[in-house]
Write a structure and sequence with these properties.
Layout lengths: L5 E5 L3 H13 L3 E5 L2 H8 L8 E5 L7 H7 L8 E5 L4 H9 L4 E4 L4 H29 L9 H13 L6 E4 L6 H12 L5 E5 L5 H9 L16 H4 L4 E5 L6 H13 L1 E2 L8 E2 L3 E6 L3 H6 L5 H7 L2 E4 L10 H13 L5 E3 L3 H7 L5 H15 L5 E3 L1 H5 L17 H20 L2 H8 L3 H10 L6
Parallel strand pairs: 1-2, 1-3, 3-4, 4-5, 6-11, 6-12, 7-8, 8-11, 13-14
Antiparallel strand pairs: 9-10
Helix pairs in contact: 5-7, 13-15, 17-18
Length: 450
Amino acid sequence: MKPGPRILVVDDDPGVLKALRGLLSDEGFTPVEARSTAEATRLLDAPEGPPALMLLDLRMPGETGLEFLARLPRPLPAPVVVLSGEASPAEAVQALKLGATDFVEKPPSPERLLTALRNAMVLGELQEERERLLDALARPGHLVGESPAMEALRRLITRVGPSDTAVLITGETGTGKERVARALHLASGRKGRLVAVNCAAIPSTLLESELFGHEKGAFSGAVARRAGRIEQAHGGTLFLDELGDMPLELQAKLLRVLETKEVERLGGSVPVPVDARILAATHQDLARAVKEGRFRQDLFFRLNVMPLQLPPLRERPDDVLPLARAFAAELAGPNVPLVLAPGAEVALRAYPWPGNVRELRNLIERINLLRGDGPLTLGPEAIHGPLAPTEPARPTLGDKSYREHVEDFERDLIRAALQEGGSIAGAARLLQVDRGNLYRRIKALELPMP
C-alpha cells in the first residue's frame, strides 16, 4: 500500500507524540516525529522533500515553536498547524501572522485536529497551484502580446534574466511590472523564491520591520524573532514594488544592505549574510525624485544598472486583443470562447486604457461576472459605456443629512483615486493629501483597503 502524506510532528512531550502517532496512522497519514526545532529543521531539508504538513508545538525548551516559525523561509516549506495548551492569545495571534493556518489547543479532539489538518493541506495545495500557474504565465515566452515592444521585452528578459544584475522596472500603474519581475526571477535560475514587497501598501511605521525583520523584544508586540523580507529572499529574488514611496531613512538602510550583502534586524547587533538579487519597480520618475530630494541618488545609481521601461497599453494596440483573450481564458476557463460583437475590436484598440493592462483585465472580469451560459461576449458599449465619464447625478435632498451626503461624495472620490492611483500612496498624490490622513479616512469611511 502506498504510504500516506507525511505529517511532521514537532513536540517534546512523549505522550503527545504517542497519541498523535496513533491518530495520524489510523487516518492514513505517515507521522514523522521531531522532539526539537533543530531536528525539525533537518527533517524539513530531508532528501525526500518537505512533509505535506507540520504540526508544531509552541512551548518547547530551547528555541520555542514561535521562534522557529519566525525564522523559517517564506513561503513556508509546508503548511503549519500550531498546537499549545499554554499559549497566550498574543502568541496565538502572532503564530497566525507568521503563516500558521490554524491554532489547536491541547489536548486536541480528534475531530478538531483532523479538520485543521485537512483544511491546511487544501490551502497548501491551492497555494502551490497558484504559484505554478503564476510561474507558467510569467515565463518570457508566455508574456502575452504581439507588438514589437513585447517581442523586444521577451528577448531582453531572456538575456538579462540569468545574471545577478539589479533591474529597475518603470512604467505606468497597471502595465504588469510584477509579472515582468517574476519572469526575470524564473529566467535567473535561482533556487530561492521571489519575495515581493509593495513599499506603498505598507505603512512607513511597519515597513522597516517588514523589510529588515526584528529580534524578540525589539519593540512592543515583538514576541519572537522574525526574519524580514530581505532575509526571506536569501538564495532568490527580492522585488521592491513602488520603490519611490520608500521613506528616505529606509533608503539609506537598503543601500547598506546592497553594498554589504548583510542585513541587521531591528534590535539586533549581528549582521546576517544575504544573497538576493534585487529587482525594483516604480511608476514614478526617480531621476526627478532625486533632483527634488525625495530619493537618494546613490541608491538610484545602485538600482538603475539595467533600466527596463514598460510601455503603456495605449502605445501597443496590437497587444489588446491577445491580452483580452488570455484574461478570458484565465477567468472563464479555456473552454469558454471570447466572442467580439461588431465594432468591439475597433473599440478595444481605440480606447486609451488609462488603467493599462489592469483595467483591461477588470473589464473582462466584469463581463464574465455578468454573463450567463454560453460564450463570453464583448460589445463596444462595454468599453465606451461604463468606462466613459458621466454627469454626476444630483443627490436626493432630505433623505440624508448634510454630513451623510458629504461622506458619500468622499467615498466615491477616494474610490476613484484608489482605482486610478493603484495604491494608497498613488491616491494620496492624486488627491494632494497626506498618505497617513488618507489611510485614516479610508478606515473611517469603512472602505476596503486596496
